[in-house]
Amino acid sequence: MFRLLVLLLVAPCLAVALMTAPARAQAQAQAQVQTRPFASDRIIVETRGSGPDVVFIPGLGSTGAAWRATADRLDDRYRVHLVTLRGFGGTAIDGNADGGLAGPAAAEIERYIREQRIERPALIGHSLGGQIALRVAADMGGRVGRVMVVDSSPFFPSLVDSRATSAQVEPLARLGYQALLLFGDQALKSQAATLGVDMGLAGDMVFQGLGLQGGDRRVLAQGLYEALTVDLRPRLAQITAPVTVVYGWTRDPENPRNRLEGLYRYGFQGLRQPPRFERIEGAGHQVMIEQPSAFLAAVRRFLA
């Protein structure tokens, strides 16, 4: 009995001693990576669970909490990373007080992936977050495993008119920027029908996200402006990862959402390989909140 006890105590030590130097170095490096804190004045990342990596990126006016119901059902099999852009919700705006929003956020997510040595993560982004996911995938190429965009478009105005350009939409976007900055998201939402009348469904998709969790007027205004004016279609050819497009849908033929897939097919045609489309019946813009079970099923298919 005594010898058995000694063997049990000594065996782990022998295993470490017999480990080759390269294996020990790799194990130590992985341990350091797992404990190294990530600091950013642009984004906050909450990480939990273990397994293949899934990075969730919220839309305009949302924090990582928008994904929590989905993440709670995944973190037993996956390591989930919930991103929040600083200035959304009750978070301090910090570095997002100046300059662009989506571009710097994408750059910080890319730095996070590199510094944490995350291998080929799945990216899931909603609305403005979907555009950020497309940026990251275009920048990182083979370092990204797959991408899901949720009720998002590489250029929102193309959902109204495929011939629209950023220059044509910019005056409307500037008006929305100024109104939101001066009067706040609630005042802008009350005028959204007027400001977005020519934007149709694209205007609804952008404006509806503003009041979910709110945030600092400066970051909301900048995000609104970029969502309306940034055209990522020229960058789609740089994306090597497979793309899935999830969107809210209705059977009502009179509802613009009934025709979304055709508009998305046109908008995403610049991808190297055709995307997969997943429509969620009964959902509007906030797909993961309005139809959580159906959305979770779509995410599981995406990750399988």
Pick out its properties.
304 residues, 7-stranded mixed sheet, globular, alpha/beta, 45% helix
Write the layout of secondary structure elements.
Layout: H1 2-18, H2 21-35, E1 43-49, E2 53-57, H3 68-72, E3 79-85, H4 102-115, E4 122-126, H5 128-140, E5 146-150, H6 166-190, H7 192-195, H8 200-207, H9 217-229, E6 243-249, H10 260-267, E7 276-281, H11 287-290, H12 292-303
Parallel strand pairs: 2-3, 2-4, 4-5, 5-6, 6-7
Antiparallel strand pairs: 1-3
Helix pairs in contact: 4-5, 6-9
- Amount of beta strand: 5-15%
> Mean pLDDT, as a whole number?
84
Read across the widest sheet, the strand sequence of neighbours is: 1-3-2-4-5-6-7
What is the helix fraction of residues, given as a range? Answer: 40-55%
Rg result: 22 Å
Report the uncertain regions. 1-33
Order of helices and strands: HHEEHEHEHEHHHHEHEHH
**Strands, total number:** 7
Structural class: alpha/beta
Distance between the termini: 48 Å
| Outline | globular
Largest beta sheet, briefly? 7 strands, mixed
**With helices defined by DSSP (H or I, 4 residues minimum), what is the helix count?**
12
